[in-house]
Every structure is written in C-alpha cells, then in structure tokens.
Design brief:
About 15% of the residues lie in helices and about 30% in strands. The chain has five helices and eleven strands, in the order βββαββαβββααβαββ. By secondary structure, the chain is an alpha+beta fold. A hairpin with a 6-residue loop joins β7 and β8. The strands form three sheets. The protein has a five-stranded mixed β-sheet with strand order 8-7-11-9-10, covered by helices on one side. It has a four-stranded antiparallel β-sheet with strand order 1-6-4-5. It has a two-stranded antiparallel ribbon with strand order 2-3.
Length: about 240
C-alpha cells in the first residue's frame, strides 16, 4: 500500500511511530461514522495516520496521530490484516468503539511565574455565523447543475450526496467502496467552484489522487466537510474523468 506522511499542524500530534505495548496507555472512544480517520500499516499494526479537520475523531479530543489501533468493537486487531480490520469498521452498525494505545506523556513542570503583560486592545470581533454551503451538482463534463443540496455542520460531502440520491460511485466503486473509511479512493468528485469553502485536502486524498494545481480540485467525498463558518455556493462535478 502507498505510504503517507502524517500532518504535523494538528493540535492532536503525537509520535508518528507505532507505540510499544510496555510503555503505552490505552483510551476507549465511541465514534459515529464516518470516523474521520485514515489508518496506515506498520510492522506493529495499524496507526492513526491522518485526521479529518473537525471530523468525528478530531472533535472527540481522544484520538491522536500515531495512536495504535488495539481493537474495534472488541475485535482484537493484533495480528489481523488491514482488510480484516477495515471490514469490521465498514460492517459496524451505529457508533464504533475504538481502543487506541499511545505513549504515556509526563506532565510538564510548572512554569515559573512571569510578570503580567501590559494590557493590549481587544481584537476586532470576527464574524462566525452558521456554516451553510449550497452544493450545485453537475454531470461529468458539464457545467449545468442538475440538482442542489445543502452542506452544513459536520456533515461530509459523501453523506450529503448519498442522502440526496446523487450518483457518487461508478460500477467498480459500488462494489468495492470502503463505506466512507477513506481507504478505497472510489468516491472521487471534482470541485469546480467554491473549493475555499471546504476543508483542506487530507493525506488520504493526496495519496489516492496526487497533488498539484490540476489535481487539487479532485477530492474524496468521504473526506470533505464545509469549513467552519463557511457560507456560499460550491459546484461539484460527479464521477469526473480522472486526468
């Protein structure tokens, strides 16, 4: 499988290496699907390789880059194949229980008191209205919208498209898609307008779709959410022809 580089800008950054069991502590977390996690294989098992910004895992505050997956719904992951573990996640009904191992972090020593800084003027308030992005869907090679939908809150584009009856997968994708786990790369769309209203591309998208000015308009629908507070119109090409 293609290896990917973990992002280092997230606040939930830990060691990118698999965790040694003798020095690890575990955390149990219940997550709705889509989990918003991209896993990578290592000799020690599956590790959290990427988190969708503001996705279910990111918002839980319990999942970190570099965490090792111990179990899924009480299915022990040690010694299991990547595909076997993904099958458990895809087949899960309702919230998914993950047990993750990570390095124990020693508390930082208390900082010495510092003099209070001089007061500074309060920054101007930044508008932070409700998130509401209007999606206009077009057929491959067309610019004429055939349907519209709304994308708000923490709803991913894949969910909005399937709930609205939009065509997302080709024949291969209908048979082989991973159910929104970010692993198969079959839910490809192309954002023709309004890409700045959506979340940044994840490492999973770069791994499946490549990068560069031409490639950046191609997205995996299971990885796309509206940016916080975004309002506007986004044109999405369904089942685009990959260049």
């Amino acid at each position: 499988r293609r290896s990917r580089v973990s992002r280092v800008t997230t606040a939930h950054q830990r060691s990118s290496r698999a965790v040694c069991a003798s020095t690890a502590q575990t955390t149990s977390v219940m997550l709705e699907k889509p989990l918003g996690i991209s896993f990578a294989e290592t000799p020690a098992g599956l590790v959290v390789d990427d988190l969708v910004a503001d996705g279910n895992a990111d918002l839980s505050d319990d999942v970190y880059l570099g965490d090792t997956l111990v179990s899924v719904n009480d299915f022990a992951c040690e010694g299991k194949t990547f595909d076997a573990i993904m099958d458990v996640i895809i087949d899960a009904q309702g919230p998914v229980k993950l047990v993750l191992a990570h390095e124990a972090v020693a508390p930082e020593p208390a900082a010495a008191p510092t003099p209070a800084p001089a007061p500074t003027p309060a920054p101007a308030a930044v508008p932070n209205g409700p998130t509401n992005v209007t999606l206009a869907f077009v057929e491959a090679g067309s610019t004429t919208p055939v349907a519209e939908a709304s994308l708000d809150g923490n709803v991913v584009l894949r969910t909005a498209m399937l709930d609205g009856g939009r065509e997302l997968y080709d024949t291969w994708g209908k048979l082989m898609n991973c159910g929104g786990a970010g692993q198969c790369g079959t839910c490809v769309v192309r954002v023709l307008e309004g890409g700045d209203l959506l979340s940044e591309r994840t490492d999973a998208e770069v791994g499946h779709l490549g990068s560069g000015k031409e490639r950046n308009s191609y997205r995996l629908a299971c990885q796309v959410e509206p940016s916080k507070g975004a309002q506007g119109r986004c044109v999405v090409e369904m089942k685009p022809t990959k260049k």
